[in-house]
Design goal:
alpha+beta; Phosphorylase Kinase, domain 1; 43% helix; three-stranded antiparallel β-sheet; five-stranded antiparallel β-sheet; 2 domains
């Protein structure tokens, strides 16, 4: 018999499918809820069994991160509603930052929106840093946007503790040396990724986007970075991050806030207010998830 993709619940079909990544699949469940689950096959080939095992491992690692973040929430980290045996139930977003940036040549992003997009992922990554975590795969494809164009950081299957070995290396968002080795997970690795994200936000394209991946990677390995002279506001932040000059992501957050004329105390007050505003929606979404799991439990395929 031919291999086939096993659905996490028998009630789901290809009509519910949204996307597929290295860690697994994402399905639309109900209303504003998606399920990220490991890739599983029926009648699998040997290589598909390896993919299944790796996918299950990454999803379990991501669950562990979300359990921490659920206890220590941040408004710019995507809302995890429920961790279940089948996978991770998450609040559904509108698009990815990568999708929006691809439209920037025909629909330029307003300066105020760009400023928000620089601050929000910086704040989210700084928050993870305080929790002893490193995202490890920070790039526009892993940054979501909600209906109000606010950033929500997602995809924590490559997240590790500070000081650990990085699990992902996506150029031009990952620092590498001449031996194609990455630094340990921490401020140096994370601020390099953040720099490439900030550059992409400010210029509407990746660093050295005009080059093929090999040539682009060679330039970055040699620490040849694109000019940021056209970005008078955040250009030196980007350059300093590429060179790993900040002691922590928190210090980058403080620098960005200062440039925007906002204090750390003001930002903390805004963060708490945003979480309070999300609380009723979170309660409703969790109730919907729990009801869905209860009703569909008989139809679990695994």
């Amino acid at each position: 018999m031919r291999p086939y993709l096993r659905m996490p619940f028998r009630s789901l079909s290809v009509d519910n499918f949204i996307s597929r990544g290295a860690a697994g699949h994402v399905f639309h469940i109900i209303s504003n809820i998606v399920l990220k689950c490991p890739t599983k096959f029926g009648n699998a080939f040997p290589e598909q069994m390896e993919e299944k095992e790796e996918s299950e491992k990454r999803i379990e690692a991501e669950k562990a991160v979300y359990r921490v973040v659920m206890e220590h929430s941040h408004p710019n980290i995507v809302l995890c509603i429920l961790c279940a045996p089948e996978g991770i139930f998450l609040r559904r977003m509108e698009s990815t930052l990568q999708e929006r940036l691809s439209q920037s040549q025909t629909a330029p992003t307003p300066a105020r929106t760009q400023e928000r997009w620089v601050l929000q992922p910086t704040s989210a990554v700084a928050w993870l840093e305080r929790l002893g975590l490193v995202h490890g795969d920070l790039r526009p494809a892993n940054i979501l946007l909600d209906a109000n164009d606010n950033i929500q950081l997602c995809d924590f299957d490559a997240a590790v503790k500070s000081g650990a070995e990085l699990m992902a290396a996506s150029e031009p968002f990952c620092k590498m040396d001449g031996n194609l080795e990455t630094p340990p997970a921490g401020p140096v690795s994370e601020q390099f990724s953040l720099a490439s994200c900030i550059y992409s936000i400010r210029f509407g394209h990746w660093p050295w986007h005009e080059l093929d991946p090999h040539a682009r990677g060679e330039k970055l390995i040699r620490n040849e970075i694109p000019s940021v002279l056209a970005d008078a506001f955040f250009g030196d932040v980007t350059t300093r991050c590429w060179h790993g000059e900040y002691a922590s992501i928190t210090s980058i957050e403080q620098d960005v806030l200062s440039r925007l004329g906002r204090s750390v105390a003001q930002e903390e007050a805004l963060r708490r207010a945003a979480l309070e505003e999300l609380a009723p929606e979170y309660s409703l979404l969790r109730a919907e998830c729990e009801e869905f799991v209860t009703k569909k439990a008989w139809g679990r395929s695994c």
